[in-house]
Structures are given as structure tokens and as C-alpha cells.
Design goal:
By secondary structure, the protein is α+β, with helices and mostly antiparallel strands. It has seven helices and seven strands. The chain has a single domain, classed as CBS-domain. The strands form three sheets. A three-stranded antiparallel beta sheet has the order 1-2-5. It has a two-stranded antiparallel sheet with strand order 3-4. A hairpin with a 2-residue loop joins strand 3 and strand 4.
Length: 155
């Protein structure tokens, strides 16, 4: 199904220009808070010169959490008895909170240009299962495009 009115739309017509970015040194906890508070799926990662070096998405954070050994619990007489000691869990949680964006981000993310057609971006998102794509103009980060932006064009 092809919608004729959308055939002319370009990335620049629907991208988000007010960017929220993080640096590689940002703590994961802070970055996660940014994603949740702003209801966004991904955030561009830029170096001190503003150059795009990666993207941090919710899926990256979930992958990072897989590394945390979640304690197994047995339910006995309606009481929870942890198998792993609390001290061990606390140590692991502290390790996770010290993790930086650089360790979880996707490096060299796929990007699009402001003049890229919406259909091309939609195909990229579906084929590669991307939710958030940075927009570069002459190597400079100028916007970001999320699945919600594309869905809004259908409404």
C-alpha cells in the first residue's frame, strides 16, 4: 500500500530538531533516565566536538542488563528466600551504575540525510529493526528520526 501524499515527504519534514544527546562518559543511569523521562527510544552519543560517535537505544540498555546476574528466588511458605547473597547483588548493582554510555552504545550507527525519502527510512526501520535514526547533514548531527515520527505522518 503506497500513500501518495507521503511520497513527497523527506526526513527534514518530520525529524526532531531539538536534540537530546549524551556523551560517551555519561553514566548509564543518567542516560536511562533521559530516555524514560522524555519518552524516547534512543539518544545520539556525541563527543566533545559534537561529532556523532554512536547511538544509545533502549535495546542497548536491555542488552547491558543481561550482564547483571539476577538472583533466583524460591517461594517458600509465601516468603522469598534469595539464593544469592544481598552483598553480592549490591556489588553487581554498583558495577552496573558505574557503567558508561560508551560501553553500551552502538558505535557508527546507520544515519540518514535530511533529503532522504520517508519511504526509504521506513524500509530501513522495518528491515533492520531500527527505532531511532540520527540525521546528518554534511557530517553534522542536525536531527533524529524515530518510529513515532513516521507513524505520525500516517495519521
Amino acid at each position: 500500500m503506497k500513500i501518495e501524499s507521503d511520497a513527497m515527504l523527506k526526513v527534514k519534514d518530520i525529524m526532531t530538531r531539538e536534540l537530546i544527546t549524551v556523551s560517551p562518559g555519561t553514566e548509564i543511569v543518567h542516560a536511562t533516565k533521559l530516555l524514560l523521562e522524555n519518552r524516547i527510544n534512543g539518544v545520539p552519543v556525541t563527543d566533545e566536538k559534537g561529532k556523532l560517535v554512536g547511538i544509545l537505544c533502549q535495546s542497548d540498555l536491555i542488552a547491558q542488563q543481561k550482564k547483571l546476574p539476577i538472583p533466583s528466588f524460591f517461594t517458600i511458605l509465601d516468603g522469598l528466600i534469595p539464593i544469592t547473597s544481598m552483598k553480592q547483588i549490591e556489588k553487581q548493582v554498583l558495577k552496573i551504575t558505574a557503567v558508561t554510555v560508551a560501553q553500551a552504545m552502538t558505535k557508527n550507527p546507520v544515519t540518514v540525510q535530511p533529503d532522504t525519502g520517508i519511504e526509504e527510512v521506513a524500509a530501513l526501520m522495518v528491515d533492520k529493526n531500527f527505532h531511532t535514526i540520527p540525521v546528518l547533514d554534511g557530517g553534522k548531527l542536525v536531527g533524529i528520526l524515530g518510529k513515532e515520527d513516521i507513524l505520525r505522518t500516517l495519521i
